[in-house]
Amino acid sequence: MKEGKREEEVREYERGEIKRVRRIVKGIIMVMMVVVMGCNSGGVGGVEGKVNLEAKNSFLESLVAIGEGFQEIFGVFGNTVGDVLGFSVVKSGDKKSKVGEHFEKVKKGLEDTNKKLKELSGDISGAKNADVSTVETIKGVIKGVSDVFEGLIGALTKLSEVINDSAADVGDNADAVPSAAEKIGVESIIKNVEVITGIAKKSGVEIVTGNAGNQIAAAANATDAIAVLGGHTEKASQGAGSKLADEVSKADPWAMIDKIKNAKASDGAALKAGNHDAGILSASNNKADAGAGAKSNADLAAAVALKAMTKSGKFSASANDSGAVRAAGVSAVNKVLGVLDFIIKRTVESNLERVREAVKGVKYSNSVEFEAKQSDATQSTVTK
């Protein structure tokens, strides 16, 4: 039920974004119409009028090309990135490398968008009879936005490189003690999630901490949820898998992202007594000491995501619980990817909005008219 509600929220968001893009493009067209009306006002008689009209028409043609280029940027981003965004990136049975492939697809979409953005900068530089100062201002904005995209591309590149295990499934498990998620992989995920959220915040995107939920008490027996991560003095037994799935199901995705970016990667080790964060929980590799728990529901779910998608991470599960544990891993990973995708998409849109506002400021240069007047005046003097 919760999964269906979340997917409906995603669809509703995407419908809203389509309307938003249409409004942006319509705004550019409206600006052009205003410029057209302004440029066509006034007399057009004589040499000055002829130069006026030709120069302004050239300027308007440049504006149309700029508007088409801007619309193409939205099309590229929507076509190459829109199809891979959402809360259902991986499914049960997918290899961990599927997560890396997802980051690679989003990265490729951003690269294509950034390429088009740079082409737009070239179009603006070549705009005929445009005021130089306004052109330079727009180019400066585009350069800043391109730098933002480069930052996102860099983080996505590193994520795609580190999450590349094509041998193990997402949510891999065995009827044994767990295996730790590879430290270097967890470190990279933590660092680059922090990079992405940091870039987003600077772009005006709100990054909420979410509701972390209640503390997960130390396992009283091997059927408790945390036993799947090695949180009990014995390997997990039947019943622990479904309890873990319940914990992941109710976890707030935003809180999971917050826990990941604030976690610390750890070398593989059995859990000690006390309540642990996502980083330490994901590194559990044996039966725990008595009294090992999680700081919150979000820490537990975030640890499930880290262990489920990172190389060498494996859960403890009885044979009858294997499917439930795998499903919990898939759900946790999709929650993390869904929020990251949302953050990236909003960051891109926020920055393209900056470009749109800047493009609205392009102005016609009066230098051509001034030169025409000077030429006409010189010719009149010579004739006399």
Question: Can you give keywords for this protein?
Answer:
384 residues, mainly alpha, two-stranded parallel ribbon, 4 strands, 3% strand, elongated, disordered C terminus
Number of strands: 4
Sheet-strand content, in percent, reads under 5%
Number of domains: 1
Overall mean confidence score, pLDDT: 83
The main pleated sheet reads as:
2 strands, parallel
N- to C-terminal separation?
89 Å
Structural class: mainly alpha
Spell the H/E element sequence.
Answer: HHHHEHHHEHEHEHH
Function: The Vlp and Vsp proteins are antigenically distinct proteins, only one vlp or vsp gene is transcriptionally active at any one time. Switching between these genes is a mechanism of host immune response evasion.
Membrane topology: Lipid-anchor
Protein name: Variable large protein
InterPro entries: Borrelia_lipo (IPR000680)
Structure explained in plain terms:
With 384 residues, the chain is mainly α. The protein has one domain (1-384). 64% of the residues lie in helices and 3% in strands. The protein is built from 11 helices and 4 strands; from the N terminus they run ααααβαααβαβαβαα. It has helices at residues 2-39, 46-81, 97-125, 132-162, 183-202, 240-249, 253-261, 278-282, 297-309, 322-359, 367-383, and strands at residues 173-174, 274-276, 292-294, 315-316. The strands form 2 sheets. Strands 1-4 form a two-stranded parallel sheet. A two-stranded parallel ribbon has the order 2-3. Helix 8 (278-282) links the parallel strand 2 (274-276) and strand 3 (292-294). Helix 4 (132-162) runs antiparallel to helix 10. Mean pLDDT is 83; it is low at 35-51 and 368-384. Pfam families: Lipoprotein_2. It is found in: Cell outer membrane.
